[in-house]
Amino acid sequence: MDDRAAVVFDEHLTDYDFGPSHPMAPIRVKLTMALAEELGVLEDLDVVGARPATERELLSVHTPDYVERVVNLSKHPTHTDAAHGLGTEDNPVFRGMHDASALIAGASLEAARLVWTGERKRAINVSGGLHHAMPGRASGFCVYNDVAMGIQWMLDHGAQKIVYIDVDAHHGDGVQAIFYHDPRVLTISLHESPQTLFPGTGYSTEVGAEGAEGSAVNVPLPPGTSDAGWLRAFHAVVPPIVREFAPEVIVSQHGCDSHMDDPLTNLMLSVDGQRASYLAVRDLAEEVTAGRWLATGGGGYAVVDVVPRAWGHLLSIVSGHPLPPETETPEAWRRAVEELRGQPAPTRMTDGRRALYRRWEDGYDPASWLDRSIQATRTETFPLIGLDPSY
C-alpha cells in the first residue's frame, strides 16, 4: 500500500450549482481548494483527476427510472418531477445537473478505487458526501449518492466489512437506507436530533433491518451541543463499535454544518472541535484498518468563515501533515475572498477553542439530554454487536 494520500479534484466539480440563492454554494469548494493550495497542503497530496460515473455505476445504488429522469430534466431544466424530488426548493433542476452530479459520484468512485486497491492509503473528495440522495429520489441538496456508490464499488470488488462514519449535522439517511439490509456495511451517524432538524430520521432505535441488526448506529444530539458534548458522544459510541466490527476500510462524511455559525443547523461546534473529530476518525483508521480511509465533504453553509478552514484541516489530516490550529490564513487567500465575496476572511485556522471533553467512563448524568441520548444509543446497539452498554 502506498503511504501517500490523494485528493480527487477537477474544477468542473464546482459545476454542481443549484443557483445563486441556494445554500449549497459551489464557491465553498473553490475557496477550500484555494486555501489548501496557499497553505501548502496540496504539496502533500497527489491531486488526481475525476471522471463521471457511468450509467452502470449510477445504477449500483439508484433506480433506472430515477437516473433517466435526472438525465432528461438536465436537458429541460424548466420541468420538474416532485415525485423524484427534482424541481423542489431543496433540489431545483439546473442545466447539466446529471453531468455535474455524475462527476461528483465519479470522484468518490475514484477515491474508493485508490484506497481499496492500495494505490493510496487515504483519499478524499471534498465535493462529495451527498448523503441524503435515495435510490429513487433526490433529497436535501443531493442528487446522486456518491458515498454509497463508493461503498458499493468496494463491496463489489471484494470488501467484506466497511464502516461509514457521518459527522454532518444532518442524519446520513440516504446511505443508511441504501445499506439498511446489508450486514457488511455499518453506518454510524452523529447528528442533530430529528426532533429539530431535517430529515427527521436518525433515532437511536434505527438499528438495521432484519438480518442486519446492529448495522445502523445513530446518535441524535440535542440542539446546542458544542465541542465537549459532541466529542463525549463520539468517543462513548464510535471507537468501541468500530473496534468490535473490525472493518477493512473506513468511509467518512465530514459535513461541517455542525459549526456554531452555520445558518441551517443548531449545533455549536467550533472549527477546533471539528478538527478534533477528523483526527479521531483518522486515529480509528490507523488503529483498525491499517490506515485505509476514504473521506468526503458534505454539508456546510457558512461558505467563507467555516467551510474552507474546516476542510482545509481535513485535507491536511488526510495528507498526513495536520495543520496546527493557530496557523494564519494566507494574505493572498484573504484578498481573493474579499474580491469574490466582498467580505473579510478569517485570519486564523482556529476559533480559539480547546477541544476538551469528559469521558463517558467518568460518569453518566441522567439529567442531561446529551447523556440520555448517548445511553439510548449504547443500549440499542451495543448488545447487537456483542458489547455491554454498561461499560
UniProtKB/TrEMBL annotation:
Molecular functions per Gene Ontology: histone deacetylase activity
Source organism superkingdom: Bacteria
Residue ranges occupied by any Histone deacetylase domain in the UniProt entry: 22-316
CDD domains: HDAC_AcuC_like (cd09994)
The entry's keywords: Acetoin catabolism
Single GO biological process annotation from the record: acetoin catabolic process
Gene3D superfamilies linked: Histone deacetylase domain
Pathway(s) it belongs to: Ketone degradation; acetoin degradation
Pfam families for this protein: Hist_deacetyl (PF00850)
Protein family according to the UniProt entry: Belongs to the histone deacetylase family.
PANTHER family to which the protein is assigned, alphabetical: HISTONE DEACETYLASE HDAC1 (PTHR10625:SF10), HISTONE DEACETYLASE HDAC1-RELATED (PTHR10625)
Protein name listed in UniProt: Acetoin utilization protein AcuC
Species of origin: Aeromicrobium choanae
Phylogenetic lineage: Bacteria, Bacillati, Actinomycetota, Actinomycetes, Propionibacteriales
